[in-house]
Amino acid sequence: MEQPESRGKRRKRKPVKPAAELAAEELQQQDRRRPRRKLRWRWLVNTLAVTFVVVAIAVTAFSLAMYSYYRSTVVASLESKAQTAAGMFRNYTETTYLFTARQFINQFEEKSTIEAQILNGSGRVMISSMMDISGANVDTPDVEDAISSKRVVPYYGPDPSTGDHIVAASAPVVYNNTVVGMVRMVTSLRQVEAQMTRIIAVTSAIGLIILIVMGITASYFIKSVLDPVIRVTETAKRIAAGSYGVQMESHSDDEMGDLVDTINDMSMKIDQAERTQSEFISSVSHELRTPLTAISGWAETLYNGEVRDASDVKKGMGIIVSEAQRLTRMVEELLEFSRMETGRFNLSVEPIDIVAELEDAVYTYREFFRRKNLALDYTECEEELPIISGDPERLRQVFCNLLDNADKHGGSGGRIEVSICREENEETDEVVIRVRDHGPGVPEDELPYIKYKFYKGSSKVRGSGIGLAVCDEIINSHNGALEIGNAPGGGCVATVRLPIGVENV
Description:
The structure is a single chain. The chain has helices at about 20-35, 40-85, 95-105, 140-150, 190-240, 255-305, 310-340, 355-370, 390-410, 465-475, and strands at about 115-120, 125-130, 155-160, 165-175, 180-190, 350, 375-380, 390, 415-425, 430-435, 480-485, 490-500. The chain has about 500 residues and is α+β, with helices and mostly antiparallel strands. The strands form three sheets. A five-stranded antiparallel beta sheet has the order 2-1-5-4-3, with helices on both faces. A five-stranded mixed beta sheet has the order 7-9-10-12-11. Strand 9 (about 415-425) and strand 10 form a beta hairpin. Helix 2 (about 40-85) packs antiparallel against helix 5, helix 7 packs across helix 10 (about 465-475) and helix 9 runs antiparallel to helix 10. The longest helix is centred in the middle third of the chain and has 51 residues, at about 190-240. It starts with 18 loop residues before the first helix and ends in a 6-residue tail after the last strand.
């Protein structure tokens, strides 16, 4: 027994969600379960890492180059000063040498930065601008090398007595080809190292600024690249979930803008294909149902013997034959379309007389049109047309299809006109076939789509809607063109253009 509604509230049924929405939710759940790979951060880290390495190498190389430059400059300066001072004592005896050396030391003006040493022939310090080291032995190799080689010898390295980094230059004083003394210039690298520290600090700061600027620039660039990618990905997911026809706004005219335009175009084509397919299935189902119903009804009637009159039997058999032929044509068009879609559309090319192929189609339909009180006017070409290469069966199929369409859509005008001629100018040389009816014509807004597959427009004429698409494919395969338009004065005209003098296939 059913309970009254007052005793308890009925449970509301949850609305059933569309399949596209359910698919979208499933994709979102899968996306949540999938581990996130932060491309943005990986890209940024890689960019900054590369920038850091480049900046570090540049700073290091610059610092080493500057340090080497300063050191070589200091060494060259000391060598020059030592060589000049030693040259002052070459003509002095040992006694006068010492007297002159003291005068030189007393008058030496760079005592604050350079230590000037006067050594005897054994390498012992005799006089120095640093008075506390007089009498000391110099343990650096430049002294012995200068004595043995009798030339200026530089030294770079630690001071044996203090451990400081120094640069020295020893110039021998030669008298009668004997080393009687030596002038040695010494300076500490503390100032150079302090200067280098300042340079390294400045270059490091510049490198850090470059790294920060690169980080900001890379972040902006990565964002400008990945944000559209994210939008494209989300849109692609919606399309994959069944939301056909969705569109994205394009904010750039670069490659990413081209990608967005391509996705939008793909979405529209998928949506159009989906709607076209639905319309085609509905149309074909209806078109197939009608002749099958007629065939089935008359076949059952004749089988059961319900028709006794011979004329009625003949009429019923005629209907069965007519509807069966219509079914055959529809099936052939569908098979032709299937071969086009799967790339199995092949041509049997041979030299053909295009006039003869057209006349065969005209003569085939002339008697058929006469029985329908439909005049068929054929205008021959005034000149003899050359033999062209093509597929005669396919071209005859095009001509017959155009004549059939003229009958279906323009037969109410009572006359169909067919002509063939040659049109030649500076750029083209073509055979032109025209099939014109005197019916209502094609609405102007439907002309751009009339050759689309499955497109029927506002026409109420039964058919699959792929006949013109097949014709267009055949003519394009012959490097020609099929044009559909409205003729002056009313009616529709189909124009076939096939090139002359070039390979047609």
